[in-house]
């Protein structure tokens, strides 16, 4: 009997083609609907490998029904949807998709920063809605980006790639991270500082830190109050790092100028969420790594990792076993 691989979202046929000779492969048939929990548990109970999305909770409940499971390949660099301790206890390898998405995610993060600072989305809607009556001196004027200070919270590979882009815009780069990145300091003149110094000094505060118990609810009203009142806050990491109610209050009270958000506490965010009613919020549907080439590379990496583990080899990008 061939080993069984279950994929929790419909992926292009060409991605799974390399698996079909050696493995039995089944996919959840929908591209844009999360696999129901009961289906996932049922499939997990007979799967040798799972290819999961960040919307799937891979936890003790799942591992305890999965008697044959050897690997979970998560289609994301983040793995906060996976209980690593439970995976380890059940001897299941966890793989993610680092590196292949670094530049695409940095491009989107910097694009979101630009769109938010220069009010690009609001301006495009203004034209399409027929509101443009004349050129005028301060029409939809936003904040400068060049020569300003960017503060990056979470200087992993994506943070470093954003810093490179910022350097190209003649920005001063501050960063806060668990460890110093000495090479970035010499290459880009990036300056390490405390979280407090960063939020007080930066014109753009860019959150790229992974979601951990330490970073959950990191950005509160007290933090927004310490920012400059023309600061722009960007979040491209995970929603729960930000207290959304308090971000809303901060934006309404004018503690900061604007926010660009690619991630939310609850995804998809409800269309009636108060944050979406604000014209100084640019909201995107968690598309940091969503270029076609990058998403295809992420899928291929998951497939390679699954094939490696099921063939008794080392996967390329193991998080933890
Ligand atoms: C990740 O990889 O963690 C992103 O959030 C989704 O691409």
TrEMBL record:
<protein>
    <submittedName>
        <fullName>D-glycerate dehydrogenase</fullName>
        <ecNumber>1.1.1.-</ecNumber>
    </submittedName>
</protein>
<keyword id="KW-0560">Oxidoreductase</keyword>
């Amino acid at each position: 009997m061939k080993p069984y691989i279950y994929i929790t979202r419909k992926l292009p046929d060409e991605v799974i083609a390399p698996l079909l000779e050696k493995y039995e492969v089944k996919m959840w048939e929908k591209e844009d609907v999360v696999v129901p929990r009961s289906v996932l548990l049922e499939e997990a109970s007979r799967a040798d490998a799972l290819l999961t999305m960040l919307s799937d909770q891979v936890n003790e409940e799942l591992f305890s029904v999965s008697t044959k499971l050897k690997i979970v390949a998560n289609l994301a660099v983040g793995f906060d949807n996976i209980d690593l301790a439970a995976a380890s206890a059940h001897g299941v390898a966890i793989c993610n998709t680092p590196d292949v998405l670094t530049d695409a995610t940095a491009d989107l993060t910097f694009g979101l920063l630009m769109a938010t600072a220069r009010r690009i989305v609001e301006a495009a809607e203004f034209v399409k809605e027929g509101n443009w009556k004349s050129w005028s001196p301060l029409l939809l004027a936003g904040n400068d980006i060049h020569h300003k200070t960017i503060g990056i919270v979470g200087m992993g590979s994506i943070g470093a790639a954003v810093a490179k882009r910022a350097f190209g815009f003649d920005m001063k780069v501050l960063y806060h991270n668990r460890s110093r990145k000495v090479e970035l300091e010499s290459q880009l003149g990036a300056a390490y500082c405390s979280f407090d110094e960063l939020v007080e000094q930066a014109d753009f505060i860019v959150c790229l830190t992974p979601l951990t118990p330490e970073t959950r609810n990191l950005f509160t009203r007290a933090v927004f109050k310490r920012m400059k009142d023309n600061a722009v806050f960007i979040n491209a990491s995970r929603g729960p790092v930000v207290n959304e109610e308090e971000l809303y209050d901060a934006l309404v009270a004018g503690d900061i100028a604007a926010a660009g958000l690619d991630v939310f506490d609850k995804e998809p965010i409800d269309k009636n969420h108060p944050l979406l009613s604000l014209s100084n919020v640019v909201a995107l549907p968690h598309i940091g790594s969503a270029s076609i080439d990058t998403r295809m590379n992420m899928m291929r990496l998951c497939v390679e990792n699954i094939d490696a583990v099921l063939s008794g080899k080392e996967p390329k990008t193991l998080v933890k076993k």
